[in-house]
Amino acid sequence: MEMGSYKGRRILSEESVKEMTKYQLTSAQKARSSFIPGFFDRFGWGFCMSVITRKDPLKSMGTYGWDGGLGTPWFNDPAKG
Question: 17: pLDDT confidence band, cut at 50, 70 and 90?
Answer without folding.
Answer: confident
